[in-house]
User: What shape does this take?
Amino acid sequence: QVQVVESGGGSVQAGGSLRLSCAASGIIFRINDMSWYRQAPGKQRELVARITNSGRTNYAESVKDRFTISRDNAKNTVYLQMNSLSPEDTAVYYCNFRNINTYWGQGTQVTVSS
Assistant: This one.
């Protein structure tokens, strides 16, 4: 059975940092893309960052130079280091794994206060 478990969310003041982790287990086929999405209240879910199996990354413009995505293929784990957080980053963050299927984490709340 596939399990996708996120951790690392929480509350922080503006300018602070958080590191999110997401680990998948029970996935048989190699994971291609690993991504982080977020959804703020009243807004659509949006892509924050993606990392391919070859290590190529892309970021939303709003988080470039502040967030860093990385992955550990041996552990089927993706990370999101978030620095210089602002209240606009407040959202539920979801990890996403993709091979021939797509798997979502349960979401973790990130709250940034001014």
